[in-house]
Amino acid sequence: MELKLTGKTALITGATGDLGRVMARTLAQCGANIVIHYNANEAKAAQLKQELEEQYQVKAMTVQADITKQEQIEQMQERIGQQLGEVHIVVANAVIQYQWTSVLEQAPADFQGQFDSCVMQSVYLAKSFIPAMKARGEGRFIGINTECSMQNAPTQSAYVAGKRGMDGVYRVLAKEVGEFGITVNQVAPGWTISDRDREAGSEVNEGYSASVPLKRRGTDQEIANVVAFLASDLSSFITGAYIPVNGGNVMPAI
């Protein structure tokens, strides 16, 4: 059994980030053409495009947009259509970064930023890309959530608020578009090892790993593997799911 995405086009928002880059490489390795979305890092996006085209022999393009602005996502959709055609797989990965602190000290703008980049990004992406999926009778809409949505730990409030709001949108959307052959799912990473950790030598954190049943942190590749599975035909009967990829650190209850 092979996981094949040949002939599909995948959009990954925040594709120049630590997790986004590995998702892009993994979906390209499976044969998908890749739309590399970025906000500010044009050079890294161009470098990733060249890498994907040369190493995996797929088509790739870069596109800049502020994912909190509906008109910019609509313009992004138009540019993708002109260059690569319809998008079959959407991965909402981008999120605004900010400094975590207590509810009483967190700036209101941070809550708004998380709402805009978690909830409204997903809404705008759905409005722009799902109509073509409905017309075609198939599609994959995947959001990157977080284990923090279930932890609700001190200082996580703005992040959790944005991601839990995002969770509600995805569950409703899954019910609204399922009849058109579109699946809508979320991947919820734990505290994941990325290139940033490898470069800093900070892969191991014994305090965190002690609470994880598998006794280690996950890797960016393990997150990307689940995204690839959800993007493929192998996941054709899974929708509305929130899937923790965190070694069992949080477990949704029934």
TrEMBL record:
Record-level Gene Ontology MF annotations: oxidoreductase activity
Annotated GO biological process: bile acid metabolic process
Classification via InterPro entries: NAD(P)-bd_dom_sf, SDR_fam
SUPFAM superfamilies: NAD(P)-binding Rossmann-fold domains
Pfam families found in the cross-reference section: adh_short_C2
Keywords: Oxidoreductase
Keyword Oxidoreductase found: yes
PANTHER family on file: OXIDOREDUCTASE, SHORT-CHAIN DEHYDROGENASE/REDUCTASE FAMILY (AFU_ORTHOLOGUE AFUA_5G02870), SHORT-CHAIN DEHYDROGENASE_REDUCTASE FAMILY PROTEIN
UniProt family annotation: Belongs to the short-chain dehydrogenases/reductases (SDR) family.
Protein's name in the database: Beta-ketoacyl-ACP reductase
Source species: Paenibacillus montaniterrae
Lineage: Bacteria, Bacillati, Bacillota, Bacilli, Bacillales
Gene: fabG_5
